[in-house]
Write the structure tokens for this entry.
Amino acid sequence: MTEIERHSYDVVVIGAGGSGLRAAIEARLQGKKTAIISKSLLGKAHTVMAEGGAAAAMGNVNPNDNWQVHFRDTMRGGKFLNNWRMAELHAKEAPDRVWELEHWGALFDRTKDGKISQRNFGGHEYPRLAHVGDRTGLELIRTVQQKVVALQQEDHREFGDYEARLKVWAETTVTRLLVQDGKIAGVFAYVRETGRFVVLEAPAVVLATGGIGKAFKVTSNSWEYTGDGHALALLAGGTLLNMEFVQFHPTGMVWPPSVKGILVTESVRGDRGILLNSEGKRFMFKYIPEVFKDKYATTPEEADRWYDDPDNNRRPPELLPRDEVARAINTEVKEGRGSPHGGVFLTVVGRMPGGAEEIKRRLPAMHHQFKELADVDITSEPMEVGPTCHYVMGGVEVDPDTAAALVPGLFAAGEVAGGMHGSNRLGGNSLTDLLVFGRRAGMGAAEYVDALGEDRPAPAQEEIDRAVAEALAPFEREGGENPYAVHAELQQTMNDLVGIIRTEEELKQALEALDKLRTRVANVSVQGGHGYNPGWHLALDLRNMLIVSECIAKAALERTESRGGHTREDHPGMSAEWRKVNLVCRLAGNADDPRVELKRQPMEPMREDLIALFDNDELKKYLTAEELPAEAKDAA
Ligand code: FAD
């Protein structure tokens, strides 16, 4: 019989990025015995890779900024498909979460008068991103990890045990949520180093597992981002919202091939970088869409004046939301005006008043990245860049205030949660999303545990046995498929058929290909021992990537309009009718071979005081006639 270690907690948090650590801190502050599980080493999460900064309307650089402006920008960026309550909570609470970080020891860059400095970013009306050079995520993670250690030291003083109320399970991967009588009862996981299995019993679980990028071939995401949390939620009976919305960041490296997809931060454009095609033309002026026409400069002269005089000039079109810039680059390349390696040029050469030294000071990580990986000196040469799969807006359907998912005891925060960013996330909004909703998820989980009292569900042995059998199955199949080959085919399918521009025909082809891949995923086999066996781990991750890919392709086929991170060549317009619709995925059918089922769910109408924050002329671009406020209807 397989030996299984068992432990018991109040709250288990899956993921040690910004949202997971913030959730765990909150659960522990509420007095709950909390475990943090991380597939990779502690400190190595996507959050650490975040470069540009954390968006919060603190008004340090432009005092006109406030939560209402931030809310409007977020809704516009998401093309009004955002869960407006989440966007409201985020805009209101983000400044407090950034100040809290500072209170816990984060050292942000400063303005001349000593305030936290804030930089410009795409889609944000005012300079809003609190940052530490282009290494903001590193500082965020360092700070919350330090807070975890401080709490562990407190517990050591009180209980003589550092891990009495906060334990980190590093390099441990959850493969199943355990559910009893419809409620969360714990998690099943394996430890990478030894391959041994563990069951952590807990009535509340917070999913904070990040994104899904590894389902695509060209991505800025690293190996851990295989959609585990999304799939775990579905397998436990939860639902996913609007999975068709995948963000392709406009600027990933395109050369050399070994680094294709690695991110080139938007700060490059926020700090005066411009995009040029092979003819040397600053092409973004051509691509300003109708809904943004009055907000973006139409000449290079006005765009350049904006950096020093934002009150009297409109923004450069390089700072349009990401979906717009990514599509523009795609078109330039497709129409034959691309760079030698299939991207376009992004340059800061001669653009900063302080010359090469200022470039190195403001963009140290980018300078280092291009020098080391591509032998390009960005102080004297342009970068070659192109779109890369970066972020998933779709995710676990949650209650905005408590982060509770549909399954009692399950919570989700950060990139794995859906709703907050609508059809397109603004840069910088993720880091504050992690902090705002990480805290709320920790609080929601603690309150749920309190309400449950002594009546805690216990995991059933048969369910644990099934999880063991599922995890060991790849060792038991002889002569099956190679997981790496199956993964490569899945990624190619998603890249080619469910990528940045989509059509009905290609999406149907994708669903057929994914159906065939289902049989192959079920037949992957691996060899070797259980300790540090990457082939085995990939074999287990494939289940999750396949489920998530099916959700994305199905929802993309269903939504016959183009909005944010979902562009249908055969349905190019944005439809006010579709804005009222959320697409919700769940698993249905045979538990051993479940299928993704898709449902249209009406969007809850926006609260009146929030609608009143927008001009009627703008609302008419997004809402149906019957949704418009009375005076706008009259004028229409
Ligand atoms: P992550 O930080 O991705 O952490 C996920 C955690 O879950 C990890 O610890 C992982 O090991 C764990 N995990 C996953 N699956 C399992 C499992 N099965 N079992 C156990 N553990 C598991 N956003 C901004 O706002 N500003 C920026 O400047 C910015 N720059 C970015 C730059 C890059 C290169 C990238 C990739 C993203 C950037 N983003 C930025 C986006 C942002 O960093 C991410 O969306 C955010 O960090 C996600 O945080 P998270 O807490 O949801 O998850």
